[in-house]
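Q: How do we represent a protein-ligand complex in a form that can be generated token by token?
A: Start from the inputs.
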Amino acid sequence: MSVDIDHRPVILTGDRTTGPLHLGHYVGSLKNRVALQHSHRQYLLLADTQALTDNASDPAKVRRNVLEVALDYLAVGIDPVQTTICVQSGLPALAELTLLYLNFVTVARLERNPTIKDEIQARGFGRDIPAGFLCYPAAQAADITGFKANVVPVGEDQAPLIEQTNEIVRRLNRQVGRDVLPEARALIPSVGRLPGVDGKAKMSKSQGNAIALSATPDEIRDAVRRMYTDPNHLRASDPGTVEGNVVFTYLDAFDEDRAAVEELKARYRQGGLGDASVKRRLDDVLQSLLAPIRERRAALERDPGYVLDLLRAGTSAARERTQATLDEVRAGLGLFTFEEAGFAAPR
Ligand code: TRP
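Then emit the structure tokens for the protein with tryptophan bound:
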């Protein structure tokens, strides 16, 4: 495994800057990032150029959310000393790597990517798929390999993108004749994907079924109150079903007291436990999870200069790292250089 000079394996992961991060991001990836940041050399990418691939008509939203997502990172416990946070659009080497990688993937393969297929469906692109969108797996391959990442903590929906990255890596390495780029491993949490509060398969801001990490106490309470349970559990005295019951799925994901959750499940199945009681417990659990996050966020919001300074320093460090990879790839492919022809490089 290729590692950094400080011998820790390298993590790269990121988020599109389209809106505030929510509990789905938390269980899918943020928790792993916070846990791994000491044992790994971690880079987090504010993926604003990727966000444009399906938000080209609203660049203002994409821009605004760069700072918002950075605030979410710091609020959940990303330590800016351990983790480098950077802005994708500030890293031109990634764009250039993308362009090179596009020659090592076919349109048919991009169209077959299950994540892309799902997202095309969800966004209702029909036949009008932006080319940038179809090709973003190559850009994500550039993100991952530009940092020479070994580990990519992501939700399970992203697994096909890591697979496609490694295919590009293998093809490029074969072309170059040696392993210029490392393959990366997706790190996917065992909990699986968190459903939306409405019971739909995926929590997503665009579906309006998400609980933001920055949600107010009232927003949390309302979301829990609206939450999908067992539609056949009409009276508290009726036996209820736990499987597919979102309240229990969330308790499984967030309640640390496993024994208490198992006991609640047993009582619910048996009959005699109302939805309101289970929801009260979940509300307590989520309130105590999110309160400190919200407080840290509020403190940071008062000092945007501090956060922007971090992003600037992080982007600058990331620029150097990704440019070094680009230089290696260019050299590996044997692209034209003026130096080789005995001339100074153009400025
Ligand atoms: N596609 C990811 C998402 O939608 C965001 C992302 C961009 C990413 N670049 C990445 C994730 C590199 C992991 C690695 O959430």
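The mean pLDDT is 95. Residues 304-333 form the longest helix (30 residues).
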